[in-house]
């Protein structure tokens, strides 16, 4: 087993990953992770722009002077570990176990990817100091939290500054069974809502003097569950509607509640807009005669990079290193890629296995991070050395 202290025989990627993982950077506290990355990028000649918003640390770094921009995007924040007693090893004391697994919070999501990105760029820039195109990093400490003052805010800054961002690789853990088996080339949209239904509180023995919002809402909610919102398409599954929480009642067994609150979420495809989903939802509720209002939250529009230089280069990069052809997928939840895609950028997500993300005993195969770094370097070569990118 490799202890936290014995890292002298490790690759540069694993050394950096473990150095980042030692820092308990729970959202939005970066714990110096970004300064560690900035120091190394500055040594390569990157121009650094620190972009703090509120309590969130962000930075944008660029190397090169002209041509298309490939950005590596990711986050230094991690989710809380929970009680350390449940972990096999302390979550912020990373180590490689006897099975060759790098263990600790952030191994998969996503300090391993950050280390692989940075070391790939270090090798590429050292070999190609005058490379065509520009290489960038967009890093935040607020992806696991509200995600308001992180990548979203940086993207708005880039938009206002008219900064170019042609291609983006997000280091989210996209792989499922083995490294590089899945590349995410899009994500479904996410639209949340909180439905408030007003009734009239009363005694359960006198229902004629009350109006039960549970009874009124039940058939309406059932209609929403049964609704066929769309059929999906070649890239996205059909839109889904899920109720996550229902709240009503005082806790007393003899009181008809006066109101009901239902929290729900749409994961939707490019076949429908969030405006259409809102209109159809409200129309269904109105047909049931409810006294209601809905608080809507648009968490992200769907995006898709169906084809183009980045998808081609990423597919080829995985094949160059691992001799396997990845599957393109839009499954899963939302990511910061949704904000970056709004700039018109080609966006893919490629990272290690996601089986243990957010779990106790998070871990990835250590050798995968070295291979991942080689894949990122291969994508850079495909775009900027082999001439597959467009000016």
What does this protein structure show overall?
GO terms for molecular function: acetylornithine deacetylase activity; cobalt ion binding; succinyl-diaminopimelate desuccinylase activity; zinc ion binding. Keywords: Amino-acid biosynthesis, Cobalt, Diaminopimelate biosynthesis, Hydrolase, Lysine biosynthesis, Metal-binding, Zinc. By secondary structure, this protein is of the alpha+beta class. It has two domains: 260 residues, Aminopeptidase (3-Layer(aba) Sandwich); 112 residues, Alpha-Beta Plaits. Helix content is 29%, strand content 24%. The chain is built from nine helices and 19 strands. The chain has a six-stranded mixed sheet. A four-stranded antiparallel sheet has the order 12-14-10-15, covered by helices on one side. Strand 4 and strand 5 form a beta hairpin. The longest helix has 19 residues. The chain is elongated.
Mean pLDDT comes to 95
- Helix content percent band: 25-40%
* CATH topology title of the largest domain: Aminopeptidase
CATH H level, superfamily name of the largest domain: Zn peptidases
The amount of beta strand, in percent, is 15-25%
Order of helices and strands: HHEEEEEHEHEEEEEHEEEHEEHEHEEH
Number of strands: 19
Biggest sheet details? 6 strands, mixed
Ends distance? 48 Å
Shape: elongated
- Poorly predicted runs of 5 or more residues: none
Oligomer description: single chain
Structural domains: how many: 2
Annotation field: number of helices = 9
Q: Class by helix and strand content?
A: alpha+beta
Second rung of CATH, namely the architecture of the largest domain: 3-Layer(aba) Sandwich
CATH class of the largest domain: Alpha Beta
Question: Strand arrangement, largest sheet?
Answer: 1-2-6-3-7-18
- Gyration radius from CA atoms, angstroms: 24 Å
């Amino acid at each position: 087993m490799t202890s936290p202290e014995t890292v002298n025989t490790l690759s540069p990627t694993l050394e950096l990953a473990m150095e980042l993982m030692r820092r308990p950077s729970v959202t939005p506290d970066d714990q110096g992770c970004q300064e560690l990355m900035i120091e190394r990028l500055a040594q390569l000649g990157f121009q650094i722009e620190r972009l703090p918003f509120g309590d969130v640390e962000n930075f944008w770094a660029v190397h090169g002077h002209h041509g298309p921009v490939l950005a590596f995007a990711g986050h230094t924040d991690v989710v809380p570990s929970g009680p350390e007693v449940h972990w096999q090893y302390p979550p912020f004391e990373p180590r490689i176990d006897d099975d060759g697994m790098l263990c600790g919070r952030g191994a998969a999501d996503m300090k391993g990817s950050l280390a692989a990105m940075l070391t790939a760029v270090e090798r590429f820039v050292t070999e190609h100091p005058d490379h065509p195109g520009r290489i960038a990093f967009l890093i935040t400490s607020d992806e696991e939290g509200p995600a308001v003052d992180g990548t979203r805010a940086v993207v708005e800054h880039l938009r206002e500054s008219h900064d170019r961002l042609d291609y983006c690789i997000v280091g989210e853990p996209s792989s499922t069974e083995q490294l590089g088996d899945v590349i995410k080339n899009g994500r479904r949209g996410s639209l949340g809502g909180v439905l408030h239904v007003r009734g009239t509180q009363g005694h359960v023995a006198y229902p004629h003097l009350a109006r039960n919002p549970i009874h009124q809402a039940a058939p309406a909610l059932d209609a929403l569950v049964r609704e066929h919102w769309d059929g999906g398409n070649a890239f996205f599954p059909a839109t889904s509607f899920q109720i996550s929480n229902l709240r009503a009642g005082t806790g007393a067994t003899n009181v008809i509640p006066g109101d009901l609150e239902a929290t729900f979420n749409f994961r939707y495809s490019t076949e429908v807009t969030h405006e259409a989903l809102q209109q159809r939802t409200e129309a269904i509720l109105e047909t049931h005669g409810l006294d209601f209002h809905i608080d809507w939250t648009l968490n992200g529009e769907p995006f898709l990079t169906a084809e183009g230089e980045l998808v081609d280069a990423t597919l080829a990069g995985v094949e160059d290193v691992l001799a396997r052809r990845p599957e393109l997928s839009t499954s899963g939840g939302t990511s910061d890629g949704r904000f970056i895609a709004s700039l018109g950028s080609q966006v893919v997500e490629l990272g290690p296995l996601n089986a243990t993300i957010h779990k106790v005993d998070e871990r990835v195969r250590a050798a995968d991070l070295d291979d991942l770094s080689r894949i990122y370097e291969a994508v850079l070569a495909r775009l900027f050395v082999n001439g597959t990118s467009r000016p």
